[in-house]
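Design job #97: recover the sequence.
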């Protein structure tokens, strides 16, 4: 149980630190809200359906990525400004890290639910449907961003973080697809062992 307390402390520490003098309070709220919502869901389902340790660890990493993006905005994370200047890139690419994990982490959760709820048998269809659902989540998030932009106008620019890149939406979905595929290729066997320890 102590490990879960540590994870919760790290979550709230990251959330609080990210909320101290953020670049823009509206953007901060939009970026960290999925993490807060996810935390509530995980707490409410913990007793009836605890997830594997690996899943909780990666969810926390994803939350920290959201907190950093919320604090600075995805277009202005200092480390990635340095990378941009050092490698002569046209934009700050921290948002691509966020969208990669937007595919990677849901793949863990979706795969675990599919296996433990006996939705799909392990094999090709498990991997294929996991990626499909993760891409659907990514597309849904892009729709959400679009809705926010339409509803709030220029105040959503920091939230969208396109930085003038025409294909930003499409590349975001591509990175989420790559993230989901990367998890399945590199971590499926480890994930299977984690799941067996729960059953």
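Job complete. Output follows.
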């Amino acid at each position: 149980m102590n490990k879960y307390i540590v994870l919760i402390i790290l979550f709230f520490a990251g959330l609080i630190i990210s909320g101290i003098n953020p670049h823009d309070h509206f953007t901060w709220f939009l970026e960290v809200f999925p993490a807060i919502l996810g935390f509530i869901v995980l707490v409410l389902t913990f007793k009836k359906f605890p997830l594997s340790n690996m899943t909780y660890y990666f969810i926390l990493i994803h939350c920290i990525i959201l907190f950093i993006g919320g604090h600075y905005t995805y277009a202005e994370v200092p480390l990635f400004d340095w990378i941009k200047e050092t490698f002569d890139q046209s934009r700050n690419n921290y948002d691509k890290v966020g969208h990669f994990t937007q595919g990677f982490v849901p793949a863990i959760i979706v795969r675990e639910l599919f296996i433990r709820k006996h939705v799909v048998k392990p094999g090709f269809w498990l991997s294929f449907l996991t990626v499909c659902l993760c891409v659907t989540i990514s597309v849904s998030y892009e729709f959400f961003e679009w809705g926010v932009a339409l509803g709030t106008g220029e105040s959503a620019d920091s939230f969208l973080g396109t930085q003038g890149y025409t294909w930003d939406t499409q590349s975001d979905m591509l990175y989420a697809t790559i993230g989901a595929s990367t998890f399945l290729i590199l971590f499926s066997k480890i994930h299977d062992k984690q799941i067996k320890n729960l059953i």
